[in-house]
Amino acid sequence: MAAEQDDMASPGRRISLASDTICAFPIRRASLVSQTFHTSPEGPASHSSQMSFSIISELTFTPSNGTQPLCLRTEIRGPAGQPPIVTSAPSSASQTPASSFPQFIKLPPEVRKMIWKYSFGGARVFGLAPCATWTTMMVDHRPPPSGAACRESRHLFQQCGEFLFGAEGLAIKSLWFRPSEDILYLDHMLVEYLEHESYYSGCDFTTIQNVAINWCGRCDESNLRRLADALVEFPSCKRMILVMSHGEPPYEDDVEFLHIRDNDQRRVCFYKGERLHWAGLKQALEEHWRKDSEEDLEEDSGADSGGSSEGELQLPPLEAVEVVPRRTASTSA
């Protein structure tokens, strides 16, 4: 709050106050400003009738914890012994905690839907436990808490994902999984166990779209055979991710993938006695698939369906990644 000094200096003029814009910063700061001015009442009067008053302004800015966004108190006092002319009680810019957003319901439904989906988080990696009969995943990812915030978020929660991988096909120990976002990660040796009824009994893999297989470092007939078998077990697969690990994969921890670009010059695989980078391995896999794997895959899938079209046998887009343990607040500290 500022006072026009020129008007106050001239006798017989009213004092006008102009308001300034006060910005709150995320630091704790308080200031107490007190100014005393002297002026004379309007009309002819002697200088002995001059009176004085003071303006006290107290500003409290946002503290670090955000509990009191803004507090203002302004007081204009007259001559000594008289009550204040103007007093404003402390007020805050927001009476609600900084963590709440009461205007959220007024947003368009499309915007609210985007916010809810964003709150569900990014893609999660589900590591398939070896030869599992009861616990199917190495890391049991919990459903996002925002999925149970209200009826609207619960409806989107049910639309975006489903509960899979329960023991014996039941809801027991099932996990919330988003087929279009989340990734199923398994070792290349586990592909052959997916067909056995004694392992992963009741697990439905037909809706999974993102499959990551730990690549053993060689490009040969047996590994390509497992790649073809994996596509039979995951008919909805739209991304085949080959994990290039340099050591024992961190199955027991939550992991994340670091993408390998096509122009990356690191040698990732042996093929016909030569170490290939990812672009060369990708080309070799695609050529080998077209030449040797299509007929075998057609026999496996055509036994039940009576024949499959060529489009269903196409190799999905291939990606290469490196796997590393996911860093959390506890591990980074």
Automatic annotation (TrEMBL):
Organism encoding this protein: Fusarium solani
Stretch list, region Disordered: 81-100, 289-333
Please report a single Pfam family linked to this protein. Answer: 2EXR
* Protein name in UniProt: 2EXR domain-containing protein
Q: Which InterPro entries does this UniProt record tie to the protein? A: 2EXR
Extent of Low complexity compositional bias: 87-100
Q: Which residues form the 2EXR domain?
A: 101-184
